[in-house]
Q: What sequence folds into this?
């Protein structure tokens, strides 16, 4: 049996301290569900005492039944002078109703003197009192010793005293935090070993990446005796980020034989990484170890043939293990393996050597070059394949649309769209307003098509995302629009790319509806509305 | 005297193996000059035997007098069966006319058998023969033991034999390469210590980042006895990149007391990092340790108030040491301390307890609730504060705009905007086209304002980002637009939020221009264009 390591994810708390990282309460719940499926032990959701948005997440989380993960609320020790049961921060931790709490306290005399302005003894009492209170309230307590390594280097005896205070008060895990991220790997090893010999409680590590050693320091601490590791997906976090769990987990589990997550989940690591970056709306880092798009990219020539003969020659692990794939750059083969990987994943069976197969590959390569991505747009991918392999039905033809947006001197805005569609020999011209140009176009399209396909009224739009692909071109940049449509509990994604956001949105919107009609095998009905002579004459 | 470490930069060779990294020969020369000024010991310029562009660089480099750095040409050992003096690859190395050569050879029997298809003894002869030939030709020889760590783990004896062959033939440095990047830090330590005890030559380390341990492994090897470290600026390189010298150098020199570069150069590290990313045309990584824009950015309220009291509390080194600077971010996590720090930085005399101070905080909270984020939009923040504390000048009034976007049955699109602005008593009505509605509005606004403020033509748009805030509202969702404008090397960010993407863009675009005019203290000039009676009548 391999040794188990507790994985503690703080993407939703420390991760959101990263610049440009921000999640809605709804996003947080979606990520928590994915982390639960993936087999993360602890999910730190936020700091309920400091932020109303975090409280909204805990309210949502209460109503969800997590199968593996424990949700954790984060907060500080009691304020000096407060009784624990009267302390607003501790009360907020109880109110979050999570099974576990992570509580941070001071280990460094500098902070005790300068930030808290209390005596060293008072600080020890705050730690003990707060933990005892939380334990009395039935919480599992993860004690975060903030600035532990700096504190230890400044005054070893006092730093260890704070840990002993936490241990004696019943803390379940004691986490050594390199809060400033300035500690070097060999120091981590030495200090964690010393702590292991000084206390009996389980030890954890919380490292940051300010010296580009976040992952190394987490691994070194585990090798030195820690059994609990804190980090974030993709290493998001304040300043240079936290220890990146997407590297820590495979290093520990695939290379060192520790048990971190259920073995069968490891192949979902790459998808998890992408999912979180999508919701954070941050561009995934191609160079990211293990899960990045370039992590197993090989150039043509000797490397490729060597890899084909024996992958060990140029790959440190098999990419499939973490759900990534090998890419062969500057080669016809790369496209084929990519696409067959993708279509296999989406559950399509088509012959890659057939004429249609070759055409799909060609078209996909062209689209990917233009900035399309089909990972979150299975419906667009399926439409593309259907178009090439079978007859995609013609549900409607766009005769044209026009979107107008006006703003006046008083700052009042108005957006309006007109659209003309043809279904067989019948034409419908509709106008609609919206709170923005895309919303107006969406409304006009639905209004026009409902005349022929009333079932469209049951389709809802679940999500609309915009990503600028090449920001340096300013407002002339290309954008990718991702849309999730839903009906009756099932949902599907479509994608559009253009320099014109309305064109990109049009493609994603219209494909969302075509996909729905195709799956319903819809047939158009004759319009029942009265037609005005003028409108007909424009057909 | 602190121990000297040789710094070997391979940005121009291994760095260009990174996906999307590519330099012209002229770019390479510019970077080499900067690396020389910075005090890098060795600059590997390319592989003259494999690539004509690399040869063009060596031709240029010959004519430049480097004051500190040695230029290095890279190549492989002699091909099996060739005499060294007849081997095209070795001849190209001589032809490059560099003082030093880095020569790679095989250490791993797997490669000897499967890639070279020769006997282990023949491989040793290739190593010896090639090095002897280069030494006879007066070269300093840096021997790169490719796949050394994998080879060592597979067959320690043979791996060490290859090093001894190199040593006996006169190699000046023997570099242990973790070519696949799969070696863990504690393995590096153990193996480098063993090698140190087995050979007398100077030892170097060449690490990759596939386990996110590239920097840790370089540092560990130095601590274990190596005296030469190879890496790239910003960690560019094949797959997940090489050891990042922008982190390795400060870790070694500022934290461990080794001497890597002249002390007075350290403060140019951040600029060097940006310079190379500019020439590579890659977006700088804000999260990059030491040199990134966010490396000393503080977001949490607790952190900010502590940093203001004593910077050591949340900063592992002083940002000035590497030419970076502290930044305070504003967000929903921010408390009063962030706001007052920010306004201090921007030069506002800001009393949190004053009437204006309270109003600013109230307004900020309101805007943040609506989805505004000011962390990347300092200019919008400054405009907000100015509005409350002093008279913000009126540069222009919007009388109205209209944006039209049309698509016809052939799928052709057209976007056009008209705008009417008033400056004092003069009105300008302009129309412009764009490749999308926002681009058209941007063009029309600039065209109209250039009539009064010609200096606007020097402002460029650097970045345009869109984020959907509440995706579940579909196309009716709120969006946040972030714009970076720039002029003459300085840049500033503005933000707009609306359910209407054009309104949100309008706010960010117009504030970007107002901020510029305010800083320039611009005064409007009278229009010089001929005015048509009809246009005037609309005023």
A:
């Amino acid at each position: 049996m391999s040794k188990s390591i507790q994985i503690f994810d703080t993407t939703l708390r420390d991760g959101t301290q990263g610049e440009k990282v921000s999640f809605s309460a709804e996003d947080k719940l979606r990520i928590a569900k994915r982390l639960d499926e993936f087999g993360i032990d602890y999910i730190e959701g936020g700091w309920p005492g400091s932020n109303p948005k975090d409280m909204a997440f805990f309210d949502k989380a209460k109503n969800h039944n997590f199968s593996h993960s424990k949700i954790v609320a984060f907060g500080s020790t009691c304020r000096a002078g407060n009784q624990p049961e009267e302390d607003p921060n501790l009360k907020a931790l109880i109110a979050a109703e999570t099974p576990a709490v992570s509580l941070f306290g001071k280990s460094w005399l500098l902070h005790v003197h300068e930030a808290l302005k209390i005596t060293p003894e008072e600080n020890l009492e705050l730690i003990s009192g707060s933990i005892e209170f939380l334990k009395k309230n039935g919480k599992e307590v993860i004690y975060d010793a903030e600035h532990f390594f700096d504190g230890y280097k400044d005054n070893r005896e006092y730093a260890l005293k704070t840990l002993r205070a936490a241990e004696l008060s019943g803390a379940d895990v004691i986490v050594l935090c390199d809060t400033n991220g300035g500690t070097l790997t060999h120091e981590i090893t030495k200090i964690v070993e010393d702590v292991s010999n000084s206390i009996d409680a389980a030890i954890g590590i919380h490292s940051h990446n300010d010296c580009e050693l976040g992952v190394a320091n987490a691994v070194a601490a585990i090798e030195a005796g820690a059994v609990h590791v804190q980090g974030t997906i993709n290493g998001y976090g304040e300043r240079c980020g936290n220890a990146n769990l997407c590297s820590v987990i495979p290093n520990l589990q695939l290379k060192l034989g520790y048990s971190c997550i259920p073995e069968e989940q490891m192949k979902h690591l790459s998808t998890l990484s992408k999912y979180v970056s999508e919701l954070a709306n941050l561009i995934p880092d191609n160079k990211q170890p293990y899960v990045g798009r370039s992590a197993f990219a090989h150039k043509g020539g000797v490397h490729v043939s060597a890899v084909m003969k024996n992958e060990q020659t140029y790959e440190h692990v098999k990419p499939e293990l973490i759900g990534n794939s090998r890419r062969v750059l500057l080669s016809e083969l790369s496209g084929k393996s990519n696409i067959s990987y993708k279509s296999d994943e989406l559950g399509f069976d088509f012959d890659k050597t057939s004429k249609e197969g070759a055409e799909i590959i060609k078209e996909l390569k062209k689209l990917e070059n233009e900035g399309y991505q089909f990972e979150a747009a299975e419906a667009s991918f399926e439409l593309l394949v259907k178009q090439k392999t079978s007859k995609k039905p013609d549900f409607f033809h766009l005769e044209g649309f026009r979107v107008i947006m006006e703003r006046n001197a008083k700052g009042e805005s108005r957006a309006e769209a007109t659209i003309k569609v043809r279904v067989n020999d019948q034409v419908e011209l509709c106008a609609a307003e919206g709170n923005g140009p895309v919303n107006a176009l969406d409304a006009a399209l639905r209004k026009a098509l409902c005349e022929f396909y009333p079932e469209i009224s049951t389709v809802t739009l679940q999500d609309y995302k915009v990503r600028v692909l090449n920001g340096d071109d300013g407002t002339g940049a290309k954008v990718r629009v991702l849309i999730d449509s839903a009906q009756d509990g099932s949902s599907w994604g479509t994608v559009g790319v253009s320099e014109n956001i309305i064109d990109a949105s049009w493609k994603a919107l219209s494909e969302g509806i075509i996909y729905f009609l195709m799956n319903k095998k819809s047939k158009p009905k004759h319009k029942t509305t009265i037609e005005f002579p003028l409108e007909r004459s424009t057909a």
